[in-house]
Amino acid sequence: MVNVKIMDWCKGCPVCYQACPAPVNVFELENGRPKVAHPEYCFACGLCAELCPAKAIVLEGFEMPYRLPFSESMKSLAKRII
Ligand code: SF4
Ligand code: SF4
């Protein structure tokens, strides 16, 4: 299982919360800031870490072969949606 960590320099935007496509959102908002609430639903897509403007998400145990390949067009679409 991937260990999802939010680092201290998180800006609370909260792009990670909006972007997480897991069936149950891995993140919950607490006073507008994300916390990792349901890590068991993380399927290691890497989108939250990819989109975080502060590079404040660390996915421990993240194995590249399991990462979905995000094209530049998909990333730009996600940035427009969130
Ligand atoms: S996307 Fe990054 S900066 Fe924004 S709330 Fe999530 S961890 Fe914090
Ligand atoms: S890696 Fe994907 S599934 Fe896991 S928390 Fe980030 S956006 Fe959600």
Task: Give a topology summary.
Blueprint: E1 3-6, H1 15-19, E2 27-30, E3 33-36, H2 47-51, E4 57-60, H3 72-81
The structure holds iron/sulfur cluster (2 copies).
One iron/sulfur cluster (SF4) binds next to helix 2.
Structural class: alpha+beta
Q: How would you classify the quaternary structure?
A: single chain
The largest β sheet comes out as:
2 strands, antiparallel
Using DSSP, what is the number of strands?
4
Tag the structure with descriptive keywords.
82 residues; alpha+beta; Alpha-Beta Plaits; two-stranded antiparallel ribbon; 4 strands; 24% helix; 20% strand; globular; binds iron/sulfur cluster
Describe the structure.
The structure is a single chain. With 82 residues, this protein is an alpha+beta fold. It contains three helices and four strands, in the order E-H-E-E-H-E-H. The chain has a two-stranded antiparallel ribbon. The chain starts with a strand and ends with a helix. The chain binds iron/sulfur cluster (SF4) (2 copies). The site of one iron/sulfur cluster has 14 residues, from helix 1.
Short description:
The chain is α+β, with helices and mostly antiparallel strands.
